[in-house]
Amino acid sequence: MFHGIGDNAGSFDNLLALLPKNFYYICTDFPSHGKSSHLPLTIPINANGYILIVKMIMDYFNKDKYIFIGHSLGGLCGFWICKIYPERFEKFIAIDGSHFFTVEAKDCIKYLKLMLSKQEKMRQYLLQGKGLEYTYDEIAEIVSTRRYGDEVLTRKATEPLLKRCLEPTGNGRYYFTTDLRVFFMIGPLQDISYARDLLRMTSFSCPVLMVLAKQNQRLLRDFKPTVKEVMKTENITTVFVDGKHDVHNNRPELVARHIIHFLQNKSKI
User: Fold this and answer.
1) Which of 182, 210, 190 has the alpha carbon at shortest distance from 79?
2) DSSP character at residue 204
């Protein structure tokens, strides 16, 4: 199970409590997230680079077959890894994330310049030391409110994240350990035509469940052509649930019922 940008393995805690107990779940903090070490400061953080990380983790656990569950960035990695190594996957579950992110050619240079300049600014900041100290309530407020699409996490959804991204300073305050560069991660450099062609020209060999959030306006507005292509792609089942991008953490029961049915079904839903 692989999380989204800026989160960590704790984002799945509430969902895991509802999933079947006859599976062995592996939840991982991506590099520069949670309790994992940071990527080198001299290397720009690129979403596609995490695909190799997933492959390394798969090889470490040395299982013949996996069921891949990914949210956001995790879903993007799942999209690629399940196509590159199809023989190693029984099923793929993407929670409000896949290869939907696109950048049109006319915007590509501007986008790259912005992300690189933001990452460099964060790199210079990180070189100065640990950074700001916060009280527990202050950092809880930041983690719960500074979210994609102006979403606000409940306290129950926030607590598991905090367990994996705080370092006590010894004076009752905390450092936020997540690498700040990840919030300006360089996404895949693909336009909408390329994203759609990937679905048309390279099929999944395993059943796929796409769980999409109804209130994720950017997904349904900016990436609508790709979403429509997903919905008519063979071997992909698409379901929409009430909620925003982090619905799996804020309202896990809405997502869990679809995942449970998919896991227990021997074929496509």
Assistant:
1) 210
2) -
Contacts of 251 (CB under 8 A, 6+ apart): 241, 242, 243
Of 251, 247, 242, 252, the closest CA to residue 17 belongs to 252
Q: What angle do CA 229, 115, 109 make, to 5 degrees?
A: 70
Residue 2: inside a domain: no
Contact indicator for 178, 33 with CB cutoff of 8 Å: yes
Q: Which domain holds residue 235?
A: 9-264
In the chain, the number of structural domains is 1
* Span of 107-111, 169-173, 233-237 with lowest mean pLDDT: 233-237
* Those residues with Cβ within 8 angstroms of residue 141's Cβ, 6 or more apart along the chain or in another chain: none
What CATH number has the domain bearing residue 248?
3.40.50.1820
Neighbours of 15 (CB within 10 A): 23
Query: 249-263, pLDDT tens digit by residue?
Result: 999 999 999 999 999
Residue type, 184: F
Residue 26 domain flag: yes
Residue 3 in tokens: 């999380």
CB-based contacts of 113: which residues, under 8 Å, 6+ apart? none
Instruction: Please say whether the dihedral angle defined by the alpha carbons of residues 184, 85, 38 and 178, taken in this order, is positive or negative.
Output: positive
pTM: 0.93
Alpha helices in the chain (DSSP H): 13-16, 49-61, 73-84, 105-127, 136-145, 155-162, 192-201, 217-222, 224-231, 247-250, 252-264
